[in-house]
Amino acid sequence: MCGELWPYQVHAQCDISGIRTPPAFCQWVNIKRTYSDIYGGDFRGMKSMLARLRLQDSRGNVKHGFHHLGMHDVENICRCLLHVLKEGNAVTVNGFRRS
Predict the structure, then answer these.
(1) Which of 63, 62, 30, 65 is nearest to 47 (CA)?
(2) What is the pTM of this model?
(3) Minimal CA–CA distance to 31: which of 4, 64, 60?
């Protein structure tokens, strides 16, 4: 996942629905934090990670799909993750929240 907002939205929806948050949604990998830990610097979003991989055009638009468009975001986050893994880096859970 790219960032911390999404897990908190899941927890908020579970609260609204009156159900306990499933344990699977209580830990995650924040790929921005992983990138910062591995490469240094401040990665504030997917576009900054894609820029490091040279996956943006000359105007700063993503080369694959459209930014903030569901499945395209998933694919681009996976590209970033695969890059980290191909370089031999470990990816560990770095986001937590109690259920």
Answers:
(1) 62
(2) 0.72
(3) 4
- Cβ atoms of residues 34 and 28 within 8 Å: no
Dihedrals phi, psi of 68, to nearest 5 degrees = 65, 35
Distance CA 85, CA 67 (A): 23
* Per-residue pLDDT at 67: 65
- Residues 6 or more apart whose CB falls under 8 angstroms from that of 54 comprise none
- Confidence at residue 3, expressed as pLDDT on a 0 to 100 scale: 62
Other C-beta atoms lying within 10 Å of the C-beta of residue 43:
24
pLDDT digits (tens, 9 = 90+) for 53-88: 887 878 877 777 766 666 788 888 888 899 999 999
Alpha helices (runs of H) in 1-99, residue ranges in sequence order: 5-17, 31-39, 46-52, 70-86
Average pLDDT for the chain: 84
CA dihedral 85, 76, 47, 40 (to 10 degrees): -10
